[in-house]
From TrEMBL:
Family matches, as CDD domains: HATPase_UhpB-NarQ-NarX-like
Classification via InterPro entries: HATPase_C_sf, HATPase_dom, Sensor_HK_TwoCompSys, Sig_transdc_His_kin_sub3_dim/P
Gene Ontology CC entries for this record: membrane
Domain of life: Bacteria
EC number: 2.7.13.3
Alphabetized Gene3D superfamilies for the sequence: 1.20.5.1930, Histidine kinase-like ATPase, C-terminal domain
GO molecular function terms attached to this record: ATP binding; phosphorelay sensor kinase activity; protein dimerization activity
Protein name per the record: histidine kinase
Length: 399
C-alpha cells in the first residue's frame, strides 16, 4: 500500500510540474506574442510599457509557474510565492487582472496548500489568497469582495475536503500497519508456543527414557534397549512435528489427518507411563464435534500438562478427563503429586503457554497445587457448536 501511495505522489508531482511549465509558457506567450485582445485595445499595450517593466513581468510569470509546479511538493512555500507575485504585480502598470495566469496560479497554489500542506497550511493559504486579492483591490480601487469570497470558497472548500480525505486515508494506512505488526507478533508467539510444546514434550520424554536406560544398563540390558528405542521413537516424532510446522510456516496447509488431535493422544500418555507413572483417562461427549483449531489447541494444552506431570511428578498417577459438552471443550489433568517441593503455581513457560492458548478462544485456565498434594490443571475452551472437526480416526485414551 505504501508503494502505491509513493507512486501516486510521484505522478502528482510530475503532473503539477507539467502544469507549471504550461502556465509559464502561456504567460510568456501573453507577454511576447501580440494577442488579439491587446491588438484591439481590450488589454494593456505591452509595447508601450516603460523600459524594464517587461523584464519584471517576466520574472513574475516565472514565479507563478514555479508556484504551480511546487504546489504539492512545497505547498506552503508555493502559496506564499504566488501571493507575493500577485501582490507585486498589483504595483506594476499591468495589474493581476491581466488574463488567466496570475489568478489561476494563486488559486492552484492555495488549493494545493490546503489539500496537501501541513498543520498550518490552511492558514497560510487563506492569508495568501485574501491578502493578495485585498491589496490588488485596494490598488485598483475595486471592491468586488463578493466575487473574491465566492471564488475563495469554491477553491479552498474542495481543497479542505481533499485534505480530510487524505488524513482519513493516512489513518487507515497507519491502522493497517499496526494491525499487520500485531498479526506478525501474534504469529511469532504462535510459532514460539508450537516450538515450545513440541520440543519441551519430546526432550522431556527423551531425558526420562535416557535416565531409565542408564539406571538399568548394567542390570537389565533388555529394558535399557527398550528405553533407548523409545528415545529414538520420540526423536522421530519430534522431527516429524517440526517438519509439519515448517510446512505451515512456508504457507502450505497441513493435511487434517496430519494435525495433532485429542483422538490420538496415546503418545502423550505414554510419556507419563515411561516415567513410571500411570494414566487414568476418561472421554465424555463426541470428540468429532470439536472444530479443528480447538482440537489442535486442546491437544497442545494436554501435551503440556502431561509433560509437566512427567517432569515434576515422575511415578505419580495422572487422571485425565476430556469432556465435550454443548459448545465447550473441558480438560482436567490432575496428579497425586510426588515431590511437591519442585512444583510451582504457574510461573513457568508451560503454564503461560496454556493460558495464552486458552485466551485465543476466550477460554479459562485454573492451575495450581492441591491442598492434599498433587497438581491440577483445568481448562475450558469455548467453540462454535455448528463447526465441525476434520474427520480423524478415534483412538481413545488408554491408561
Amino acid at each position: 500500500m505504501s508503494a502505491a501511495l509513493d507512486i501516486r505522489a510521484r505522478w502528482r508531482e510530475v503532473a503539477t510540474g507539467l502544469a507549471g511549465v504550461a502556465l509559464l509558457a502561456f504567460g510568456l506567450a501573453e507577454l511576447y506574442v501580440p494577442l488579439a485582445g491587446y491588438v484591439e485595445g481590450q488589454g494593456p499595450d505591452l509595447a508601450a510599457l516603460p523600459d524594464g517593466w517587461l523584464a519584471v513581468l517576466t520574472v513574475l510569470v516565472a514565479g507563478y509557474g514555479l508556484a504551480v509546479a511546487g504546489c504539492t511538493s512545497y505547498p506552503r512555500t508555493a502559496a506564499v510565492l504566488a501571493g507575493v507575485c500577485f501582490t507585486a504585480q498589483s504595483f506594476t502598470p499591468v495589474l493581476p487582472e491581466w488574463p488567466v495566469v496570475p489568478l489561476l496560479a494563486l488559486l492552484a497554489a492555495c488549493f494545493g496548500c490546503v489539500a496537501v500542506g501541513g498543520r498550518a497550511a490552511p492558514t497560510v493559504a487563506v492569508v495568501s489568497y485574501f491578502g493578495a486579492l485585498g491589496i490588488e483591490n485596494a490598488v485598483a480601487g475595486d471592491s468586488d469582495w463578493v466575487f473574491i469570497l465566492f471564488v475563495g470558497l469554491a477553491v479552498l472548500g474542495p481543497g479542505y475536503a481533499v485534505r480530510m480525505r487524505r488524513a482519513q486515508a493516512a489513518r487507515l494506512v497507519a491502522l493497517a500497519a499496526e494491525r499487520e505488526a500485531a498479526a506478525r507478533t501474534d504469529e511469532r508467539l504462535r510459532v514460539a508456543r508450537e516450538l515450545h510444546d513440541i520440543v519441551s514434550h519430546g526432550v522431556s520424554v527423551m531425558v526420562l527414557q535416557a535416565a531409565a536406560a542408564q539406571a538399568v544398563l548394567d542390570s537389565d540390558a533388555g529394558q535399557a534397549r527398550m528405553s533407548l528405542d523409545a528415545v529414538q521413537d520420540v526423536g522421530r516424532e519430534v522431527v516429524t512435528e517440526l517438519r509439519r510446522l515448517l510446512v505451515i510456516l512456508r504457507g502450505a496447509e497441513a493435511a487434517p489427518e496430519g494435525l495433532p488431535s485429542l483422538r490420538r493422544i496415546d503418545a502423550l500418555t505414554a510419556a507419563v507411563r515411561l516415567a513410571g507413572g500411570r494414566v487414568e483417562g476418561t472421554v465424555t461427549g463426541d470428540l468429532g464435534m470439536i472444530p479443528t483449531a480447538t482440537d489442535v489447541s486442546g491437544y497442545r494444552i494436554l501435551q503440556e500438562a502431561l509433560t509437566n506431570a512427567a517432569r515434576h511428578a515422575p511415578g505419580s498417577t495422572v487422571r485425565v478427563s476430556i469432556e465435550v459438552a454443548g459448545d465447550a471443550l473441558r480438560l482436567h489433568v490432575v496428579d497425586d503429586g510426588a515431590r511437591p517441593a519442585r512444583r510451582n503455581a504457574g510461573t513457568g513457560h508451560g503454564l503461560t503457554g496454556i493460558r495464552e492458548r486458552a485466551e485465543l478462544f476466550g477460554g479459562t485456565v485454573n492451575a495450581g497445587p492441591l491442598a492434599q498434594g498433587g497438581f491440577e490443571v483445568r481448562v475450558e475452551l469455548p467453540f462454535d457448536a455448528e463447526a465441525s472437526a476434520a474427520p480423524l480416526s478415534p483412538t481413545g485414551v488408554s491408561g
